[in-house]
Amino acid sequence: MKNCDLVDNKSAIVGGVGDMYSEDSATLDQPISPWTISVASGYSLMRDPRYNKGLAFTEKERDAHYLRGLLPPVVLSQELQEKKMMNLIRQYEVPLHRYIAMIGLQETNERLFYKLLIDNVEELLPVVYTPTVGEACQKYGSIFKHSQGLYISLKEKGKILETLKNWPERTVQVIVVTDGERILGLGDLGCQGMGIPVGKLALYTALGGVRPSLCLPITIDVGTNNEKLLNDEFYIGLRQKRATGKEYDELLQEFMYAVKQNYGEKVLIQFEDFANHNAFELLARYSSSHLVFNDDIQGTAAVVLAGLLSALRLLGGTLADHTFLFLGAGEAGTGIADLIALEISEQNGKPIEENRKNIWLVDSKGLIVSSRKESLQDFKKPWAHEHEPITGLINAVKAIKPTILIGTSGVGKQFTKEIVEDMASFNKTPLIMALSNPTSQAECTAEEAYTWSEGRAIFASGSPFDPFEYEGKTFVPGQANNAYIFPGFGLGVIMAGSIRVHNGMLLAASKALASQVTEEHYEKGMIYPPLTNIRKISANIAAEVAAKAYELGLASHLPQPEDLVESAEKCMYSPVYRSYL
Ligand SMILES: NC(=O)C1=CN([C@@H]2O[C@H](COP(=O)(O)OP(=O)(O)OC[C@H]3O[C@@H](n4cnc5c(N)ncnc54)[C@H](OP(=O)(O)O)[C@@H]3O)[C@@H](O)[C@H]2O)C=CC1
Ligand SMILES: CC(=O)C(=O)O
Ligand SMILES: [Mg+2]
User: Fold this and answer.
1) pTM, 2 dp
2) Alpha-carbon distance 543 to 220, whole Å?
3) How far is the CA of 273 from the centre of ligand 3 (A)?
4) 69, 245, 377, 507 - which has most CB atoms within 10 Å?
């Protein structure tokens, strides 16, 4: 019996057998053969990260696969290997060294890498993901050893389909793609943005249980406007300014259709860290022809809405009773604002235009108001309310008196003492979200939010902060990061074989996440459940997303399983070593 029907061979136009080594169809207690051809030496087995087990190859496996003598005599269990690796990683004090060690492990022993990541998620997420992945991207050229993922540059124009065929996997279910122009809050890192798709897909597997072989990280290189990188002798990308306009659009179009041709209709394409002048357009252009999801717009919106829904237990009232002020009106800011307004409309039945009125945004030029409408980008226009022009966040806070302040500016230290004190002066419990990544770009720290509000703020941030003690009470900041959403969301989409992403699926994901927060969490000031239970959380999110896809008639994997949570859990990749006998 099949363990999981995730691999949708029927939908892949080129066909190909995804389950080459019976990994997908074999249950954990069944041995599998890593070989489809007979070999004279197991040396290449040891060098294949997908099948390597290091010193854990048993005596019988060493005999059966020509490994005798290629390994020292000891046989170590995976648990002991994990303990050893964790000891080693903890010895590195510099976060980037930990990142390099983890990537080294991913490149040599994939299952051990995922075992570490799954078992130590709170400790290792900041290593393979934000904040350290940001520094890794900045220095990617200098630390580059082995290539990960697929690079599609302007040189591949006209040959993108051929380039995709060079990827060793014939069946792919999720692609995370960036063009490197807005990497976290660090700006244009060009081709070195590859660290982001690689990191996001590691989370798809560790947090959402999507098998690594089904995940493809891609970086589109159209040049960079980052002078520092253009002058860096170790830069790995095209040494030219960014292509724009027709040249950019044509490359992206060729890419999108080559993906569909090579991997079929149902490959989920997750856009990540594109600059907003391309992100909104790409999502709009391809959402009717492809299965596309923008993590920065949609995933962020779902995770923040989940935090807001759960925070209402502490703040009181409904979403419609609150006043929201955003610093930053780009992908994250307007994406979140849109989903909040949509959810309020679902709740009160009023038109979305009316429910936008309590939601205000500030961009680099000040409060978004109707007198600025003509010069605003389209995605900001719905937020141009009647108000006199205001510059400076502090003045906007004083005028709007928000109950909830959300930072999505990409600029650190913008929530000053005066701003947090103001929020605390007119709110019993101010909710402050400093969402910009990495930590250096956070609008304020956990310590600042708690001390400046005299322990009254509820605080969540995009990158993690340690718990903070204030006047004898320990506050646990939440990590409002789309990492809570996209792995479970993607799993739900794949499970259902959904052909499109729909806002209803985002709302379902938000509610599934919010419902995982318990009284015990609220007592510590948490509005998100701990990441330690993330696989269970992802299974619940996946189940709700899949259920919504079925309800909306978007699902193609029929019939609908009776118990979607159980289905999601069954589908999840386990990093435990398989027996190769
Ligand atoms: N926690 C999470 O899960 C996520 C966090 N993020 C983080 O959010 C940040 C923003 O991302 P994104 O929305 O995609 O970026 P965008 O570039 O799309 O938007 C940034 C917005 O911030 C505004 N801005 C920039 N500087 C200032 C300033 N000094 N004062 C006021 N407004 C300013 C910009 O104004 P203007 O339009 O005038 O240029 C723009 O509206 C990044 O740091 C990113 O890492 C993003 C996605 C998910
Ligand atoms: C978390 C994320 O997607 C970002 O900061 O861009
Ligand atoms: Mg992002």
Assistant:
1) 0.95
2) 32
3) 5
4) 507
